[in-house]
């Protein structure tokens, strides 16, 4: 009964979001907007890049000028994870649990530990250098989740620790919102950069942008890991 209720709530929330966007004046009909009139050349101005301190202008737009949109994207992922948790929340664990009681062989255990390190280091590099090169919190977080999935399948003891990522998800999401609100307090709008921009090209630059990307990476990685855990084990409750 609980899984049916969870599915109903998820569908109801999805319909509400679609109707809200469809009736909003902020979303004109498809084809009614000339993008050449909406994209500002100020984004590509050299002085503007110096102001934000980010060598990756896409990052400056996504996390800086359009930071509220990024909050919406994170919220969409949260709703997706919540929907999966609600759907699988009422499934009896013992009767419907996916059979993951196989014993990983030596090759799987050893290879997973080696590959896990490479994936994790690469994901952290992408996250920490998101303001300097293509990448950032979203792709880095997805790579973290792939590394977690690898250990999930190769280590029996690790599976019980995946649920701890729910706490990390909540902390990262809360800090993301708090930093955005600090932009309102110390500046003028949500997620406005209130820290020194630094020198373009240096790792410690772009103000709050690297901090935001770290939080997004942790949140995305933990949320996708939670989705994987729900799909593979069909947890007992939300």
Tell me what you see in this structure.
- The protein has 238 residues and is mainly α.
- The protein has one domain.
- It has 10 helices and no strands.
- The chain has helices at residues 2-22, 35-38, 46-52, 57-65, 67-89, 93-96, 106-128, 137-154, 165-186, 209-233.
- The model is unreliable at 92-98 (pLDDT under 50).
Topology:
Blueprint: H1 2-22, H2 35-38, H3 46-52, H4 57-65, H5 67-89, H6 93-96, H7 106-128, H8 137-154, H9 165-186, H10 209-233
Outline:
With 238 residues, the protein is mainly alpha-helical. It is built from ten helices and no strands.
Number of domains: 1
What letter string, H or E per element, gives the SSE order? HHHHHHHHHH
The number of distinct β-strands equals 0
Distance between the termini: 14 Å
Radius of gyration: 21 Å
Shape: globular
Given as residue ranges, the uncertain stretches (5+ residues, pLDDT < 50) are 92-98
Structural class: mainly alpha
* Strand content range: under 5%
Oligomer description: single chain
Q: Give the number of helices.
A: 10
Tags for this model:
single chain; mainly alpha; 238 residues; globular
């Amino acid at each position: 009964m609980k899984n049916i209720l969870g599915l109903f709530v998820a569908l109801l929330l999805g319909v509400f979001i679609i109707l809200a966007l469809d009736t909003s004046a902020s979303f004109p009909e498809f084809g009614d907007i000339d993008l050449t009139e909406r994209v500002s050349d100020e984004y590509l101005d050299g002085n503007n890049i110096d102001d934000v301190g980010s060598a990756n202008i896409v990052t400056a737009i996504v996390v800086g000028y359009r930071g509220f949109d990024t909050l919406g994207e994170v919220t969409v992922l949260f709703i997706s994870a919540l929907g999966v948790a609600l759907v699988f929340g009422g499934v009896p664990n013992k009767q419907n649990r996916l059979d993951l009681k196989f014993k990983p062989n030596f090759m799987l255990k050893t290879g997973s530990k080696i590959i896990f390190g490479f994936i994790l280091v690469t994901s952290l590099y992408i996250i920490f250098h998101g303001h300097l090169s293509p990448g950032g919190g979203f792709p880095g977080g997805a790579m973290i989740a792939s590394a977690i999935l690898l250990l999930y399948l190769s280590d029996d003891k690790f599976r019980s620790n995946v649920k701890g990522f729910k706490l990390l998800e909540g902390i990262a999401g809360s800090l993301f919102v708090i930093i955005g609100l600090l932009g309102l307090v110390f500046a003028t709008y949500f997620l406005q950069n209130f820290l020194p921009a630094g020198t373009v090209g240096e790792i410690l630059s772009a103000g709050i942008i690297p901090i935001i990307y770290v939080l997004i990476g942790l949140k995305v990685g933990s949320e996708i890991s939670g989705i994987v855990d729900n799909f593979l084990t069909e947890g007992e409750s939300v």
